[in-house]
Amino acid sequence: MINEMIQQHTFDQEQTPAMLQLETGTASHTAFCFAMAVNRHHQIQFAVLGGNDSTLKSFRAAISMGTRHLYFGEGQKEELYYALGKKMNVISTGQFEFINTQTTNRKKAIIVFSKEIEEKYIVAIDEAPEMQVRDFLMAPPYGLPILEEWAKPIYEEMLTRNLLQPLEVYFDKNEFSSLSIAQVVLKEEDCKEFLSEMIRSGKCQFPQEGTGEKINEINDLNEYLLEYSPVMLDKVTKLDEPLHQPMKDQALSHFDTYQRPLFPVQAHVATGAAKALQVQKGIIIQGEMSSGKSAIMTATVDGYFHLTGQKGYRTCVFVPPTLTEKWAKEEIRHLIPDAEVHLIKRTEDLIRIHQSWIQAGRPKPEKPTFFVISFTTMRGDSIKQMPLPYKKIALSKKSEEEVQRYYKNGYYCPDCGAKLRKKTSSIMVHQANGEQKEVCQYKDFTGSDLDSKTNKNSVCADCNSNIWSPKVKTKYASFKEWTKYENKLVQAIKEGNKPLQKQLELENRVKPYDAKQSGRAYRKVATVEYIRRKMKHFFDALICDEVHELKSETAQGTALGSLAKVCKKVVAGTGTLFGGRASDVFYTLWRLFPQKMVKSGFEYSSLMDWNETYGNIERTYYHDGEVVSNVASRGAQGMLDKTKVVPGISPYVFTQFLMDTTINVRLKDVWPNPVELINVPTILVDMSEEQKQAYEHMKESFEKAIEAAKGTPDVGKLWLSYIRTGNAYPDNMNRYPNYYLDRNEKNVVWSNSEYRFNEDCMQPKEKKLQEILHTEISEGRPTIIYVSDTGSTVKERDIQPRLQKVAEQVSGAKVAILRTNTVTPPKRSEWLKEQVKNGVNVIICSQELVKVGLDLLATPTLVFYQLSFSLFTLNQAARRHWRIGQTNQCRTFYLGYRETFQAQMAQLIAQKNKASEAMNGDATSDGLNAMLGDTGDLQTLLIQNIKSGNQLKGSTEEWTKAASEESKRVLANIGNVITPVFESIEIQFTNWVEKLPGTMDVAFMKDAKFVQKAVEFIQQGKVPGVQVKKRELEIDGEVEGIIRTLTTLNTDKRMLVQKQDIAFWDEVIVEVDTAKKKGKRKSKVIEGQFEFDLFA
After folding, report:
1. Could you tell me the CATH number of the domain that includes residue 830?
2. Which among 915, 914, 902, 913 is positioned nearest to 942, based on CA atoms?
3. pTM (predicted TM-score)
């Protein structure tokens, strides 16, 4: 039937049009059919239908639900309707998509296509089908590189091999010049071999523009990229012209008005981001630590509203708790000093401001206004409770001898009525027809499963509705009691009884909250919930710092999605967008750029589909029969962990989702003349003989227990504990707790009581630490010692008091410990500065406390006494001292025991750091391993190496690639007393004067007598902003203020009169208003401008 209609060139749309008829049993609907494609089972795959609104809605509903009562044929016009003559029955099954459109004569129409069309078919409308095949094979999951001239031979070869199966397609020649649809049956695993065969056979040939000899000269990918990157960049630029090109376009002049001007690179990045916000909703700034992300994000928002001509705007600043004070007091005001900044510590603060704004008549902002809110404040909500009762309803009464049957027995969803259950496993099964089917195992919730709210029990597995409610104290014991009050109040209002109404309202206001709830039951609402409900159009923009911390499906991650929805523009910042897996950006992209995700065919719940497309999946497959027997023999537990997401990211993530939404910033671009960063090669220390015996005893105990536990669920737990103990035990052999397999402490795996050491005896690693501190203190360099074991979970594992005792034995050491409860997170940066100012030169703390947002400018030396299992934490903590504004050489030391897990950890970190460069923009040959998945979490990699018995090859010095001469010098000087060579204060003062701009006539300040007097005043503390500290001249004050003070204090004032009257200095002040001197004897950043401490 359809072949006959295909052969007909066109139809008389007025008398005999092609039509599709729907029979519902009670009514018949007929629509014009301008195109139709069915498979061999007569199932609709594609159609274009025209008609009135009601007719199209009927077809849309019927096709969506599935129907077998569709008839395709040629219509015959009757007096009032069209009657189908010869017709063919077609059916609709599966999922369909619909697009509203119109015909060439502007009549309403819809395009109908199945989900399979998007995934398995090529559709060529008014174009050559071979070009559609080329585009299809170049996209994921195939990703083949196909030249344009290869399209036709590949298309013909696929038809010949039956790898491309065309559908029977009818289309109206009046509406379409051509239309072809074909199913691609080429398998992903065979696509590369297919293209290789086409090239080998000569059917696909490369352009004859060269001899190909250059390929033989390329040894590795790095060499290739270095040589041909300009050519590739030129081609990419032609294909996708950037919105802002720093080599051609100027940065916004508006940024020059800032109190603290941006660096040139920062200004260009902010300009490009601001222009991007004009054409899209959001942008992500991915910058290395200390590249100035905070300043760039602030300038981006301000620059965007400057481009739109809007002087006043409101911005929500969503940041980690440790950064709230810094954002509110420094980051914003350093750029925009007249901005209005609100630090929101509680939801009540924001409600009060919002209500005041409403009462004032909702005025528009007259200047930039920022609301700084932490992650914890934004997500902090009332405690949740399970309100659903356990239902046990008998189906019928039975005698005691009979088994009782129940209609309901468990917890049931109040929305859909389904029994509440949790998914215990999920596997993909190959069916007989070759398709894959997901088989899930569920387990009914018990009372213990619902003791507290978790991600697994928060929603109904069937309808996805929330099943938890707030646990709060209320004024009324029940809704029935509330309705009694409500009825009285409504009656008083209807009767106009004002006195009674006021009395009832007053009684309600003073009525105490009922305390029937046990335990904590605070009445509070999450800030994001109030914003989502009450402040939908209040904020003009959202700034989200450290967005990588919101990548998961957590409360604060969900808060980001809600904020992005109610804010008009979004600017997010992070130093590490990827953590090694494609899933790291799935929820972030959904929350910030949902349109992209929808357009790419992903749903919010399709994380596994995302990982399959852009990541690496390790999956075990079962055939139908094996699944049944497996469940029967081993139960539901045998079905667990059959699907695993492993590290690896497809480059397509960048090209399809990040190229137009992310700007990458490197520190070396922003900070052109950084101080030297010395990564001293890892120092491995030999254990004492007593330590070796204790360590071998620990290893033997764990390995014996692991061997005995093979084939049981305990083996994984034992391996994890073995790795953690082997890494931490050498640093705490006296107090490290015994390890038990169960909580009852009955089944002891390893006991530490057999080996004890003299507390006063210094261990080798502790001695090496003392040597490092001895040298650093002699040079006047404050030092931070990083540890991992702080006793937060097990008190006996805390090594900080021991290290404090070790460090205090070094001459001149003054030691402090920074704990979680020492000071609140927003005040940690100030606390550290204050400690150094008070003479503390050794600070011991966990890496976790300083990994985000803290600038350790005051402590230029870092010592990793213990290494974290988190590469992200380790790398973040390792750069805290190397920041813009640092004037001292930065040194980083790493310590470990040789022939222990610590040594293997150091080597693994060295290897993983190479790979991680690919994620941060500096991709090398090794770095591409991260893209391919040749990387994992450190614990897993360490376990794999120990299991295999392989010795890690290479030296830990690979961490720094090649130790510099300076790092070798620092390594050789460990333990030596370094006597710094200082210039006299007079010479330092004269050098500072000479660096002042030539526009300032300050030659008289170089006079010997003036210098002598000036130094005396400085040493007496009479010159604010200038001090002598450890024989170094520190100038932190404003230039104009220092000059005023010195010239006023100097007794020989005739020098000033001879040169210029006092009005001259007013001119100087205006001329160098932005030239504020910070730090110690710094070099200029830009000609005519002083360097400044951008993130002090």
Report:
1. 3.40.50.300
2. 902
3. 0.62
